[in-house]
Amino acid sequence: MATLTYRDALNQALREEMRRDSRVFLMGEEVGVYQGAYKVSRGLLEEFGPMRVVDTPITELGFAGVGVGAAMAGLVPVIEFMTWNFALLALDQIVNSAAKILYMSGGQVPMPIVFRGPGGAALQLGAQHSQSFESWLGNVPGLKVVTPATPADAKGLLKSAIRDGNPVVFIEGEMLYNLKGEVPDGEHLVPLGVAEVKRAGTDVTLVAHAKMVAVALRAAEELARDGINAEVVDPRTIRPLDVATIAASVKKTNRCVVVEEGWPQFGIGAQVAYDIQHTCFDDLDAPILRVSGADVPMPYNKQLEKLAKPDAAKVAAAARQVLYRS
Amino acid sequence: MATTRRPTRELQRAANAVTDKALAGENPADLRRLLREMLLIRRFEERAGEQYALGKIGGFCHLYIGQEAVAVGAMAALTPGDRIFCSYREHGQALARGMSPRAVMAELFGRATGCSGGKGGSMHLFDAEKGFLGGHAIVGGHIPLVAGSAFAIKYKGESGVAVGFFGEAAVNNGAFHEALNMAALWKLPAIFICENNRYGMGTALERASAIWDVAARACSYDMPAETVDGMEVLAVRDAVARAAQRGREEKTPTLLEIRTYRFMGHSMSDPIHGHYRTKEEVENQKQRDPLVTFRKRLEDARMLDQEQWQAMEADVNAEVEDAIRFAEESPDPDPAELFTHVTSG
Prior knowledge:
The structure holds two protein chains of two kinds.
Chain A: E1 2-5, H1 6-20, E2 24-28, H2 44-48, E3 53-55, H3 60-72, E4 76-80, H4 91-98, H5 101-104, E5 113-119, H6 134-138, E6 144-146, H7 151-163, E7 167-173, E8 180-183, E9 196-199, E10 204-208, H8 212-224, E11 230-234, E12 237-239, H9 243-253, E13 256-259, H10 268-280, E14 289-291, H11 302-308, H12 312-322
Parallel strand pairs in A: 2-3, 2-4, 4-5, 5-7, 6-7, 10-11, 10-13, 13-14
Antiparallel strand pairs in A: 1-8, 6-12, 9-11
Chain B: H1 8-17, H2 28-53, H3 68-76, E1 83-86, H4 91-96, H5 101-108, E2 132-135, H6 143-156, E3 162-167, H7 174-185, E4 190-196, E5 199-200, E6 203-204, H8 205-208, E7 225-229, H9 233-250, E8 254-259, H10 279-286, H11 290-300, H12 306-329
Parallel strand pairs in B: 1-2, 1-3, 3-4, 4-8, 7-8
Antiparallel strand pairs in B: 5-6
Helix pairs in contact in B: 2-3, 2-11, 2-12, 3-9, 5-12, 6-7
């Protein structure tokens, strides 16, 4: 086990997969000479050269489409968006091209491509730079949506995503890049579509993904001081969603809070709550609660921004509520 | 090599000045083959229109009648290793690429035997083995895919070219400009074929575009370009051959503006003429029907006699009838197919 930052874990995943498979290449804004806007691609240009680490003009629609066309011609593109906010310009290519071509072609044209970059809010970046789109993208058949929360998952999931053979939306976090954690040595693969229990508990299930895993774990520590033993389940993959692991936890705890950074309406929490009522109807001892980002564009002001984001206190309060201990 | 960047008026003159190319030195059998392919598309589309009216074909159906010389001329200059991307008006390109009329008609009928298994339809014809990578139905959306495929060709050191067909309405779209910029910047072996049929649905080029010479758009990207008479199959073939050679040998892209005209409405739900163009205009354009004029030229050059033409017509009619019968008799996809191919593996 080595201790790595989330950033370096991603870098290792890219490096290993590019060494393993000459069809894999990285394309995006500032990935090469600049070494990556968030330095995820540090050193890759030097090792793999400009044909495999390709700096693009600022044209999300265009280079996402270039990736799709390259995948259709037998390559395995990793398309980096500087942030997922900018990828809205590329939604046509992600949704209308990448997600549909295998199906529309009757299975003739595979689409091995990864679209990756940071999502969610950082600090005071304002409304256009602080958004979570996993629920939008998770709505689209043909896509897989991955949201790693730890360095180990970041590495293992990115390697699996590159090998998956399907269009994978891979959403990282600006605030996660410096997060340190242990990453298994050698070949480390985390399968897509498999949740992980990040903290075992008995009293309440906290479902959280990406950056919210750390928030949920902090909430669990806070709850533990009150003698409440929370279980934290990280789906890791939003689509396909590992309902079985979430349901197994809820059947044990009988209570559930879903935490997400994005907006509440039609969000991840809405989907998870549906799946839980469908699979665990007779096991629930309280209505499921959601803790989400506020239903507003992200404000710039520091205090307002804090109010808009989920935090451990909000999650702990919701957990107490489903335990009727508030 | 007629690759130039010229001012607008000069380009227009060049387009208008395209005259009959001498047939000397051409192989008569090859020319008859081009005529046959155009005839096949014409008859196929006429019969597809009828089948649509009968309710056998659903959804949208965009016919290629009037534009046959573009697909046939272009495909004649390409090789099996090339990759083809089209818009949603792509029945002609599919047939010209050598996809069987049976598989294409069955796809229009939505049958399991269709070239996309009945899951694509008129706008999403695919044949991966033939490098036919789809009809795409978002205007301009497939143009970056052409650049991407050309990138892959260069990346892998292959000798092919990636070719994209799109209408003139797509050139005002960001995807077009982003793709052409990258193709020129990275010197990719791509051919961007703009089929300028004068109308984006019901909007004339002049009502949508600040400049009327599509080829002139290439100036922005320092890309070779040509304006080509799209009613003249040999002019198209030769222009695409020049572009393909440039792609293969110099690994540089080309923009071709191929001026053509659709004799039918935008889709089956659009009348042939109406609010946006007059009957006189359509009739006037039909004087240059690429099929009629090419047949006459071959006859005048004694490369085609009456007997050969009649045999060709009978053969093509039988092929199209066979395609319709095949489509009619083919089964719908199995209900289980609903959930296959959403993802692979």
